[in-house]
Every structure is written in C-alpha cells, then in structure tokens.
Amino acid sequence: MAIVIYILAGLSILLAIGGLSAYAQTKHIGLLLSSIVSIGFSVLAIVLVHWWPLIVGFGLNWVLRLLGLDPGARR
Question: What range defines the domain where residue 24 resides?
Fold first, then answer.
C-alpha cells in the first residue's frame, strides 16, 4: 500500500509543478493556490505514509474550484 501512496503523491507533485509553471505564465491565483495545496498534502502523505492527506488535498482543490478559482481551458 505504501508504494501506491508514494506513486500517487509523486504524480500529484509532478502535476502541481506543472501548475506552478502555468502560474508563471498566466498569473492566475487559482493555479498557485491549487499547486500549493497539492504539493503540501502530497508531501504530508509521503511523510505520514497514509492515504487521507491525498483525499483531503483533492477535496480542498475541489472547494477552490467551486469558489471559482479554476482557470478553465486556455484559449
């Protein structure tokens, strides 16, 4: 189970780094907040070797989306 947690957390960190690079180009605050939340909870999941930080991070990112901080599709 620990391997699955490490893989999911690692993928989440990689996606969050992509979000930070997109933030550098667009300066959309939602990308910055979402990336910080994802990195923080992924690191917490790695440190604790438990699955619940990944679920909480996903939930917080969903709340950010509901608040309108989702940048949507690029045009």
Answer: 2-66
Q: How many Å apart are CA 72 and CA 65, to the nearest integer?
A: 10
SS3 content of the chain, % helix, strand, coil (to 5): 80, 0, 20
**Structural domain includes residue 72:** no
Q: Which of these, 72, 51, 57, lies nearest to 16 by C-alpha position?
A: 57
Chain-wide mean pLDDT for the chain? 93
Q: How far is CA 70 from CA 35, 50, 51, in A?
A: 12, 27, 24
Q: What is the pLDDT of residues 16-53, one digit of tens each?
A: 999 999 999 999 999 999 999 999 999 999 999 999 99
Examine residue 74 and state whether it is found in any structural domain, yes or no: no
